Amino acid sequence: MERAQERPSGQPAGGRAPEPVDLELLVHGVGGTTPEEMLGDARTVRVAGDDTAAVFRRAEDVSEDVSGAGAGPRGGPGARGGGGPVQEAYVWCNLTSGDAGRALWLLLLPFMVVNLAHWMRPAAPARPRAVRLYGLLVRLIALTLTVLLVAAACEVALDLVAWQCAGARDCARRHFWLAFLTPDAAQGPGVRRWTELLGTSGGWWAQPGRRLALAALVPGGLILLLWYLSHRTWSAYESHRPLVQGPAPDPDDSALARPGFWYGRRLVARLRAAHTAAGLLTIAAALATPALRFDHRPGGPGALDTLGVLLTACLLAGAGVTVAAVCRRGRDEHRVDQRLDPHLLRQLPLGALALLLLTALYTGWSRPDWHSTGRLPGAPAFGGLMLAQGALVVLLGLVAWGMYRSGATPSAPTTETDIDSASVLGPASVPGPASVLGRGSGPVLGIGSDPASDPDLSPRSDSGLGPGPGTDLGPDPSSRSDPDLGRVVKVLVKATR
């Protein structure tokens, strides 16, 4: 049961403070329904939300709260006149509809899984360093996921297509759209007309470096798409400032009641810039490696070799700055942080883009005696990235196991929460009602309790039903014998206030 202190819009500010009320939240399944059916009453009033998702009450419950007089006993489950709580219906069926562009959010699904790894962190208020290490590992795993995603696109576009297929006569002949990348394949009249139309009949694109620079448009387009999707969700959700009403929350209250818990504008903007820069630097590294290896051979062009070394040093410096931006903490849950990092948000992606353009120019420089054979130099690094990510996952599991083992030891909670792994690129990290509360066309009933009034649900380090004050955002696996429906309902009730 959730006890809430609230003042309806019709009550004057100077009036008597309302008595705490018990709320019973009803949430329907993915089949959708109406608030009238959920509440069993034809007269309902929307008390929070909008046309997309909203919370409804019976009209007499709203009028009773405004007038302060009881409405008397009435029929139906949960009627306050019969001593039951006030029923609220959370209607979210419109969240499942929208434009076709939302289907592209599936590209952000892997990042949502990484975000969920943070919210599943074991409760360990006695080990603040382990909490911070856990958050750091989650952020690094998310960064390697971005690098692996872009590297996979480079593996296909740069290695398989531009380096191997376009460099082999038989493969290029079987794919006419690769004809302009190699002069040997321009044999038929249709292919010859295609190459003449592009003005490339002389084989200008036939050099391996220029083929690689052209193929880099594919992973570059992927990064642009990811940036657009993450920017769209950031603008629509993370930048929506929460309505902070009433006095400041109690420092010992649940983390869900803190003003900055639902506001990740600064954090997500910084992580989005860092992940965009990491993707651009990954493409630049894939372009620079084969050209640098060719120039660094004995008898290679000295000027290009020096330029390649300088570009490599700049790429390494950019990678270091990106990792530092990801590892940096900077979110305060106890206040609504309106600040941004304009220099980091703008200069980091633009600097990575400038390095990518310079690297593409360097790789596409004329090298008449350069021919592509075998695999693309640097391609085996893809396997090394997977091994590094696997090592980080194993280390994260060990840290989580240690936190789980020490989570049962009661101690004083810390005052700061490390949640920088939340919302790396995708939408909100907290799973929606459809993914948590299950399926079905009928309403799902859940009852939560206020930690201050229910000792069995009070926030403490050894409880898995609610986050402890400060650091405990994830459930303690030691007490997860049942689905934590009460905790989920508490999240939904807090989110609609």
From TrEMBL:
Transmembrane residue ranges: 133-153, 212-229, 273-294, 306-327, 348-365, 385-404
Record's keyword annotation contains Membrane: yes
Sequence segments annotated as region (Disordered): 1-22, 433-488
Keyword Membrane: yes
Sorted UniProt keywords: Membrane, Transmembrane, Transmembrane helix
Name listed for the protein in its UniProt record: Integral membrane protein
Originating organism: Streptomyces griseofuscus
